Each structure stands twice: as structure tokens, then as C-alpha cells.
Amino acid sequence: MAAEVGVTKPLLYTYFGNKERLFLACVARGGTKLQAAVTEAFTTAPDPGESLRSGMRAFLEFLDADRAAWQVLYDPTVPVGGEIELEMDRHREQLAALAAAAVQGVLPGHSAAEADAMAHALLGAAEGLGRWWLRNTEALTASEVADLLITTVEPGIARRART
Predict the structure, then answer these.
(1) What is the pLDDT of residues 13-39, one digit of tens each?
(2) Engineering a disulfide at 140: which of 107, 131, 133, 144 sits with its beta carbon 3.0 to 4.6 angstroms away?
């Protein structure tokens, strides 16, 4: 990172305090960008169903556009219980709240707990597909991966809407 911006590592650590603070700044920056992209997708769609599709697409398009930020946000090697994990969880919960609101729009009359659970399932599927895609970028485009996710989950959501 220091080489990328043309400074020394000690200068970066002096500015941020230490490696953890630097990583925390990267999490905050990436989380804010992802949040903005997904929020825009959810809130500008013409109807609840399209809102959900747009949000899932925005999540995977963010991965395609800023792989480094996505990998920081979804780094599985972050130590448990620290400030970084709390910040990562905060961003994930904000995304889950957006997704839950979109699910609630598609499933009116269903409980908030059910919408929240489904939102977490959708985000888990999107994260899993994102990790797969990072290892297989030549197999499908990000847009094709998003379409795959959408066509996989929509029948279940539609079936749930009828109950």
C-alpha cells in the first residue's frame, strides 16, 4: 500500500497509528463505498422485486469494481473479538438491514425476523458466490454471477410470498 501511494511504511503507520488502525481505515472506506452502492440500488429501483435484484447485483458489481476493498471487508482471517471485527460486523449488519427492508417489501405480512433471516441468507449466498468468483473470474462475468444468484433465490422468495 505504501508503494502504491509513493510513501514509506513508517509514514503510513505514523499517520494511522499502527497496522490495525490502517486496516480499520480500509474497512471503513470500503464498507462506506459498498453501503452507498447497495443503498442506491435498493432505493432507486421501481418496485420491491427489482429492489432486491438491484441490491444483489450492486453487491457483486462492487466486488468486480473494487476487489481489494471487497476482500478487506470479507477477510476471513481477521482475529475474532477486536475492533476490526466489530467494524466489519457493523457494515455487514447495515447491509443486512437494507436487504431485510427489501425482503419485507417483497414479503409484506411476513415477520421482521423472517425478513432479517432471509436477508442474512441472501448476503451469505452473495458472499459465497463472490468468493467463488474471485477464484474463477474467467468462468463467468460478475453480471452473470449476479444473474445466477438472482435466478437461484427468486423462486424461493416467490414461493414464500404465497404462504
Answers:
(1) 666 667 788 788 889 999 999 999 999
(2) 144
Distance CA 104, CA 119 (A): 9
Q: Give mean pLDDT, residues 53-61.
A: 93
How many domains does the structure of the chain reveal?
1
What is the spatial distance between Cα 79 and Cα 64, in angstroms, rounded to a whole number?
26
CATH number for 60:
1.10.357.10
Per the structure, the complete domain to which residue 106 belongs is given by 2-161
Distance of CA 17 to the CA centre of its chain: 27
pTM, rounded to two decimals: 0.85
